[in-house]
Specification:
The protein contains 15 helices and 14 strands. By secondary structure, the chain is α/β, with parallel strands linked by helices. A ten-stranded mixed sheet has the order 9-6-5-4-3-2-1-10-11-12. A two-stranded antiparallel ribbon has the order 7-8. Strand 10 and strand 11 form a beta hairpin. The longest helix has 23 residues.
Length: about 425
């Protein structure tokens, strides 16, 4: 009988191929890993993947994750065939769900109907209002893509697709947390938000080349988790912390129970001993990434030769997830330095993702984003602790928005002027 252990797979049906040229997208460089003109998943590899994934997955609900590059470039027919294969290979007790991350520019009414009909969770990448989004999320001609993305988002909403927003925090928008949050809530009607920090790590010798971008047509530089410099597009640790604090203050004043923010949910879960995001979990090492040809890597952020684990053509996912190489990868996470071990917030982030631990301090490498994490945790945890008390007492978390309730629990709600830093004008941001 096939062993079934917890694992997930981020699958890339178009490899690194994308119709955009977002300047901070390190994954564009991953096409250098393979000497193949068209790096798209064949139907044979799709068949093998679905069979292998479902064979190694437990009964109950299982989720297939589709990313890129831009996965919709593979075409609607490919995903229609995926639906047929899932029905062919799933066991009677398995329920297969799908989550797809897209830049939104290729979403048509037909795509939106397909996602709605098959219950896809669709994440759309948007970095805020047009001047902020268009600073780095551009097409191959260097023009902003905001209008195209919003059109795709609106098609998904009209079709009733379960959709959320993934927003990167970068040098262009890090000082505008309140503005970005309100834009997503009020203009786009979004209720599920993820904020992902951009940290483009690079060696000093490669920094100038990396500043030109990651598409291999202009730069033959393969992105690796190596070096102790970052590009000018990267968020700063302090800016990242301010951004999260501003978002938190907007949320806690009026949107608890209505808007859901991954960073907040994960922090609250971690306070109860179970972080919901691998970045802030105590351990990692079961979240693999699969390229277009069936090669499996240790993680979506570590798709590079040193962390190639194997192939679905020679191993089951259960064997890949429990392989010695994945064991080596899992041991990166708990290897934190003395400063981390002494930190009062250790149990909330466990040193963050190992990919960001490149600041040399004392006995080891410290997380580049530590200052931002610390600022957010010190700002948010008193209120989150009070929310936890409400939940434990059987009351809704939204009760915290009542100032009298907040005071009775020993906290004060932030006023519009009390955030660590308020969003400045976005005038002058490059569009």
């Amino acid at each position: 009988m096939t062993r079934r252990i917890p694992f997930s797979v981020v699958t890339k049906p178009t490899g690194a191929a994308c119709n955009l040229d977002c300047q901070y997208c390190f994954f564009l460089s991953k096409e250098l890993l393979y000497d193949a003109g068209a790096q798209t998943m064949s139907e044979g590899t799709l068949d093998r993947y679905v069979e292998a994934f479902l064979e190694s997955s437990p009964d109950g609900e299982v989720t297939m994750l589709w990313q890129g590059g831009e996965p919709t470039l593979r075409g609607l027919g490919f995903f229609e065939h995926l639906m047929e294969l899932c029905e062919r290979y799933r066991r009677p007790a398995q329920r297969v769900r799908h989550a797809l991350q897209t830049n939104g520019t290729l979403v048509t009414e037909e795509w939106a109907r397909f996602f709605a009909d098959h219950g896809f969770l669709v994440g759309v990448s948007i970095d805020g209002p047009a001047p902020l989004h268009d600073a780095y999320r551009v097409n191959r001609g260097g023009r902003g893509t905001h209008a195209m993305v919003v059109r795709g988002w609106e098609k998904l909403v009209r079709a009733g697709v379960e959709a959320n927003i993934l927003c990167t925090v970068n040098a262009a928008n890090e000082e505008h947390g309140s503005l970005v949050y309100r834009y997503f809530r009020d203009e786009l009607g979004a209720r599920y938000l993820q904020f992902i920090p951009i940290v483009e790590r690079v060696r000093a010798a490669d920094l100038a080349q990396a500043e030109r971008g990651w598409r291999s047509g202009t730069s033959a530089l393969l992105y690796r988790q190596d070096g102790d410099c970052v590009t000018s597009r990267s968020t700063s640790p302090s800016g990242y912390g301010r951004f999260l604090c501003e978002v938190f203050d907007e949320w806690v004043r009026s949107d608890v129970g209505e808007v859901f923010i991954q960073d907040v949910d994960s922090t609250l879960a971690a306070m109860f001993g179970s972080a919901s995001v691998c970045v802030h979990a105590r351990t990692c090492g079961v979240n693999m990434a699969m390229e277009f040809n069936g090669d499996v890597y240790a993680c979506d952020h570590w798709v590079e030769p040193d962390w190639l684990v194997g192939s679905i053509y020679s191993s089951s996912f259960a064997d890949l997830a429990s392989s010695p190489r994945m064991g080596d990868f899992a041991r990166l996470k708990p290897d934190v330095d003395a400063q981390c071990r002494a930190c009062p917030h250790l149990r909330l982030c466990w040193g963050g993702c190992p990919k960001d631990r490149f600041v040399r301090r004392g006995d080891g490498a410290h997380n580049y984003l530590c200052e931002g994490y610390r600022a957010f945790y010190e700002h948010a945890t008193p209120v989150l602790r009070a929310i936890g008390m409400l939940i434990a007492a059987g009351r809704p978390a939204s009760d915290i928005m009542d100032p009298a309730v907040a005071v009775s629990l020993g906290v004060c709600l932030p006023s519009p002027a009390s955030s660590p830093a308020k969003s400045a004008s976005i005038a002058g941001v490059r569009s």
